[in-house]
Design goal:
heterodimer; A: alpha/beta; Arc Repressor Mutant, subunit A; 8 helices; elongated; B: alpha+beta; Beta-Lactamase; Heat Shock Protein 90
C-alpha cells in the first residue's frame, strides 16, 4: 500500500513552440510554478535538445517550422526515448493522429488553453511515468480504494459508489495531491473530448463529495478556484 | 472581325470537316452515277460495233471479199446519213468499200479501237465529228473498220459531267452556308453564356443565362448553370448571414470585456474586489473562446472531413453514457429524468460527435425545462437505422421557428437571459447532416421533442 506523496516535484520541461508569445507565456508560467524550463523555437533545435538532454516532460507544438510536432515525437520514440510529450494543437488541427497519441501514453491540448490546464496535465503525465508497481489499492489519508474488489472504505466504513463514481474517485486518487481539471475528468473518466455547456462535472463531484466527505470530519476532495479539483489530505 | 471570330469557332471547324466528308461522299455518289449513265452509253456503243463486226466477218467467211464489199456498199447506200462508219481495205490499207475515203491515220489501242475525227463525209451536218471504230483483220490480211459517230454520245457525256460538277459545287456551297449558319447560331448561344459569366464575374451576381424555352441541350446546360448559380448565391447569402450574426453576437461580449478591463485599470481599493473583476474578465474571455471553438467545430463538421473516421458506433452505449452524465444534473434541478434505451443499437458514424450532439440536446432540454418538469431520453432501433429522441416539458419551439433555431446564433428569447451561445442546435444539425440523419423538432405537448432519425443509406 502506497500513500502517494503529495510533495511538489521539480520538473525539467522542454517547450518546443515557435510562437514567441505562447512560448514566453509557457516558460514564465512553468518557472513560476517552480519548474526548470528550456525552450526551442523550431523543430530541428527542439529534437536535438530533446535527444541530448534528459527532460522529464515535453510540450511540443503540432505545427512547427522545419520538423512538425508529430514527426519529432515519432523520431524520439524511434530512438527509444519515452519522455512523455504533451502536444499543443490548434482546434482545426486535432485529428485522429493527435488523438491516437494520447492513447500511446501522451496527451494533447487544444489552443487556446488555460495555463492551469497545461500544468495539471504535465503533472499528470509525470505521475503516469512513475511505475505503477502493480498497485492493488490506493490510499489517501483514511480513504482506501481496493482495485481488485472494487470497494471503497473511509475510516474503515464501506462506501457505496456507482461504477462511474468509482472510476472518478480512482482517477482522483491516482492523481492525489495534484490539480485535476474538469476537462481532464471529462476526457479520462467519461472519454468526452468536448466541453458540455453545463458544468456537469461539478454535479458529479458534489455527489462524490457527499459520499466520501460528508459524514467525515476532514474533507479530502477540494475545489481549486479557477482550475479544478484536488484530492488530498492537507487542505 | 465578327466573321473572323466565327471562322475560329470549333463549331465552324466542325462544319468544315462535315462539308469535306459530305463533299467526298457526294463525289463518290456522282462517280457512280456517271459510270451508270455515260459509261453505259459508251459500253453500249462498243457492244453494237463488236456485234456488227461479228456479223460482217461471218459474211466475209461465207461470201468472200466481194460479198462483204457488196454488203457494205449496200448498207451505206441504204442509209447514207447513218451514224455507222464502214471501211474495208486491202492489206496495204487501200480503200475497197465504205463510207470514209481512207484509213484514219491514228494509232489504235491493244484491242484494236481507234478514236478519230471524220472530216469530209457528205453528212447532213457537213462538219467534222468524233468517231470511234474498231479495226478487225480478216483472213488474207484484209482490214475491216467498223465505227460509230460518237459526237452525240460525247455531247451527252459532257452534259452529264457538267451537271454532276454543278451538283457537286451546289452541294458544297449549300453545306458551307449551312455550316456557317449552324456555327453562327451555336456561337450566339455560347456567347450568351460567356456574356452572362462575365457579367457575374463583374459582380452582377443576380444575372442568369437566358434560355430559349425549347428545352434542347443548350437550354439544359443553361438551366443547370443557373441552378448552380442559385445554389452559390444562396450559400453566399447564408455565409453573409452567418458572418453578420457572428459580428453581432460577438460584439456585446467584447464590449463587456472591454468595459471590465477599463474598470480593472482604475486603482481598486479592495484587493478582493479587484480579483473578482479579473475573474469575471477571464470568464468573459473563456465564453468568447468557447463560442469560437463551437463555430470552428461546426465548420469542421460541415466540411465533412470527419466522415473518413466513421466506424460502427454503439449508440446504446453513447446514449447510456450521456444519460448517466446528465441524470444527476436534472435531479439537482428537481426534474424527472427518464431514459429508455434499447440495447445493441448500432449506427455507422463518429462516436465523439454523436456524444456531443446528444449531450447538446439533453443540455438544452434541462436548461429550458422548469422545475418539476420531465426529461426523456429514448433510443429505439429500427430495421434500417435508429431513432434517438430527447423530449422535455419546457416551453418548446413554435413551429414557425423550428427551422431557424438550427441556424447559428439564433435564440428564441430576445433577452437572451438563459446562458448559451445559440450554437448548440446548429452543431446537432451539422452532426445529423454528416450522418445523413434527419433532425426533427416536434411538439411534445407541451415541450420540445427532438428526434435524430438515422437511416442507413441504400447501398450504392
Amino acid at each position: 500500500m502506497i500513500d502517494i506523496a503529495t510533495l511538489p516535484r521539480v520538473m525539467r520541461v522542454l517547450v518546443i513552440e515557435d510562437d514567441r508569445d505562447v512560448a514566453q507565456y509557457l516558460v514564465k508560467g512553468l518557472k513560476e510554478a517552480g519548474h526548470v524550463v528550456d525552450h526551442a523555437g523550431d523543430g530541428k533545435a527542439g529534437l536535438t535538445m530533446a535527444i541530448g538532454e534528459g527532460y522529464d516532460v515535453m510540450v511540443v507544438d503540432r505545427m512547427l517550422p522545419g520538423l512538425d510536432g508529430l514527426t519529432i515525437v515519432k523520431a524520439l520514440r524511434a530512438s527509444d526515448n519515452h519522455t512523455p510529450v504533451l502536444i499543443l494543437s490548434a482546434l482545426g488541427e486535432v485529428d485522429e493522429r493527435v488523438r491516437g497519441l494520447s492513447a500511446g501514453g501522451d496527451d494533447y491540448l487544444v489552443k487556446p488553453f488555460a495555463f492551469v490546464e497545461l500544468l495539471a496535465r504535465l503533472e499528470a503525465l509525470m505521475r503516469r511515468q512513475q511505475p505503477a508497481a502493480a498497485q492493488t489499492s490506493l490510499r489517501v489519508a483514511d480513504l482506501e480504494l481496493d482495485l481488485l474488489s472494487r470497494t471503497v472504505k473511509r475510516a474503515g466504513q464501506t462506501l457505496d459508489l456507482q461504477p462511474r463514481e468509482f472510476q472518478l474517485l480512482e482517477f482522483l486518487m491516482r492523481h492525489a495531491g495534484q490539480v485535476v481539471t474538469r476537462t481532464m475528468l471529462l476526457e479520462k473518466v467519461w472519454d468526452y473530448h468536448f466541453d458540455p455547456q453545463t458544468n456537469v462535472i461539478d454535479v458529479h463531484i458534489s455527489r462524490l463529495r457527499q459520499k466520501i466527505d460528508k459524514s467525515f470530519g476532514r474533507p479530502l476532495l477540494h475545489t481549486i478556484r479557477g482550475a479544478g479539483y484536488s484530492l488530498r489530505a492537507a487542505p | 472581325m465578327r466573321l473572323l471570330r466565327l471562322l475560329r469557332t470549333s463549331t465552324f471547324r466542325l462544319a468544315l470537316i462535315y462539308v469535306a466528308l459530305f463533299g467526298g461522299s457526294v463525289l463518290i455518289l456522282l462517280g457512280f452515277i456517271y459510270w451508270a449513265t455515260a459509261g453505259y452509253i459508251a459500253r453500249q456503243t462498243d457492244e453494237t460495233i463488236a456485234a456488227d463486226i461479228t456479223g460482217l466477218a461471218e459474211q466475209y467467211r461465207q461470201r468472200g471479199l466481194d460479198g462483204l464489199a457488196t454488203t457494205i456498199t449496200q448498207r451505206v447506200a441504204r442509209n447514207p446519213q447513218g451514224s455507222t462508219i464502214y471501211l474495208l481495205a486491202e492489206p496495204g490499207f487501200r480503200r475497197i468499200a465504205g463510207n470514209i475515203d481512207r484509213w484514219p491515220p491514228v494509232p489504235q489501242d491493244s484491242d484494236g479501237w481507234l478514236t478519230f475525227t471524220v472530216q469530209d463525209r457528205e453528212s447532213a451536218r457537213g462538219e467534222a465529228y468524233q468517231a470511234r471504230a474498231r479495226h478487225f483483220v480478216l483472213s488474207g490480211d484484209f482490214n475491216l473498220l467498223v465505227g460509230r459517230d460518237v459526237q452525240e454520245r460525247r455531247a451527252l457525256q459532257e452534259l452529264i459531267v457538267e451537271s454532276l460538277a454543278w451538283g457537286l459545287a451546289i452541294t458544297l456551297a449549300l453545306a458551307l452556308v449551312g455550316g456557317l449558319l449552324m456555327s453562327w447560331s451555336m456561337v450566339q448561344r455560347i456567347e450568351a453564356i460567356n456574356r452572362t459569366s462575365q457579367e457575374i464575374m463583374q459582380g452582377e451576381l443576380a444575372r442568369r443565362i437566358p434560355t430559349t424555352g425549347t428545352g434542347d441541350d443548350f437550354d439544359q446546360l443553361a438551366h443547370n448553370l443557373n441552378s448552380m448559380l442559385d445554389q452559390i448565391e444562396s450559400l453566399m447569402a447564408g455565409i453573409r448571414q452567418i458572418s453578420d450574426n457572428i459580428a453581432h453576437d460577438l460584439r456585446s461580449p467584447l464590449m463587456r470585456l472591454r468595459s471590465r478591463i477599463e474598470l480593472a485599470r482604475q486603482p481598486q481599493p479592495d484587493a478582493e474586489q479587484h480579483r473578482a473583476l479579473i475573474d469575471a474578465i477571464a470568464a468573459e474571455a473563456d465564453t468568447l473562446l468557447s463560442i469560437f471553438s463551437a463555430l470552428l467545430r461546426i465548420a469542421e463538421i460541415e466540411a465533412g472531413n470527419r466522415r473518413a473516421g466513421f466506424a460502427n458506433v454503439d449508440l446504446s452505449a453513447v446514449a447510456r453514457d450521456a444519460a448517466e452524465l446528465y441524470e444527476p444534473v436534472a435531479q439537482d434541478q428537481h426534474q424527472t429524468f427518464e431514459a429508455r434505451i434499447e440495447p445493441e443499437v448500432h449506427v455507422h458514424g463518429d462516436r465523439h460527435l454523436l456524444s456531443q450532439a446528444l449531450t447538446n440536446l439533453i443540455d438544452n432540454a434541462i436548461k429550458y425545462t422548469p422545475e418539476g418538469g420531465t426529461i426523456q431520453v429514448e433510443l429505439r432501433g429500427a430495421a434500417d437505422g435508429a431513432d434517438l429522441t430527447v423530449a422535455d416539458t419546457g416551453p418548446g419551439v413554435p413551429p414557425e421557428y423550428r427551422d431557424r433555431v438550427l441556424q447559428r446564433f439564433f435564440r428564441l428569447e430576445a433577452s437572451r437571459s438563459t446562458p448559451g451561445s445559440g450554437l448548440g442546435l446548429s452543431l446537432v444539425a451539422a452532426v445529423a447532416k454528416l450522418h445523413n440523419a434527419e433532425l426533427k423538432l416536434l411538439d411534445n405537448h407541451p415541450g420540445l421533442r427532438a428526434v435524430l432519425s438515422f437511416r442507413a443509406l441504400p447501398r450504392s
